[in-house]
Design a protein that fits this description.
Largest sheet: 6 strands, parallel
CATH topology of the largest domain: Rossmann fold
Number of strands: 12
CATH class of the largest domain: Alpha Beta
Number of helices: 12
Structural class: alpha/beta
Number of domains: 2
CATH superfamily of the largest domain: Response regulator
Amino acid sequence: MKKKVFSLLSVLTIMVALMTGCNSKEKNVANAGDGKFNVGITFSDLSNPVWAELVQEAKSYAKGKNMNVTYVDAQSDATKQVTQIENFIQNGMDAIIICAVESNAIEDVTKKAQEAGIKVVSYTQVIKNFDAQYLVDPYNTGYAAGKRAAEWINENYGDEEVVEWALMDLPEFPEIIERANGIIAGVEENTKNTKLVATASALTAEDGLTNAENFLQAHPNLKAMASIGGGGSVGGNEGIKASGITDYDSIGLFGIDATEQEILNIINGEPQKSSVSLGGGKAHGQQLIDIATGLLTGEDVEETVYMPIEVIDASNAEEYYKRIYK
């Protein structure tokens, strides 16, 4: 009888040990069973058309990689984003992709995610705790946009004594400040007659529309505008048109992101004259999923990957559109 009791206790002990081991590796066992990884994505503001395109493409592209993607919008609320990341941790995500509202605000929660064995991928913003990051070279990206604006100004208004221009920036983010500084340098270092007369923050198309209208009301002789992103460019293009300007060759709008709408505006001869491609929202969505896949499958993944820089204007817009959007 004692032997039977001892044997039963031994079996129960082994079963408890096995169950404990299973619980500690629950996420990995689940992945081994269904062959899928779960990825959470939180973005600072999905009203940005580039980012909206990105997360939709990431979700679609991930299906072919045997991944489930859940994305959420922090709506520019740092506290809300921390809660979103905490929820991802509690839900057992294998990887979390983050476009931070405020980098410092997520320091503790990203550390918690890594301690739970979750891979953390940062997008555009530099954060403290990460496994990989996909970043913009902010200054050189801005410089490329500013230089193209300068070339257009020289071609069209090189003989003018003063050419007024305006900038849509986004000083809430350090990396975007660098991008704006690059735009300013690109214009000023490549022209002799330009004067920056107005700046305003722009993340969304609505911001861009309002800014363009305000710029032109305050400065009717304005000849050029530049934007740090696709939202400002798309809205700015509509704002210029709404202001009553009909000669679209008389004013130039220069952007960054090369969204589908921006490229169509360039092809159609509208006020927007160029945009700097960083690969595009769709390409970024795919790249982020590829990075997450590499981390989760044990591949060698570069810690920091920079986005490509390519100026798109009337000379290559149609080819770019076919390559990226068709």
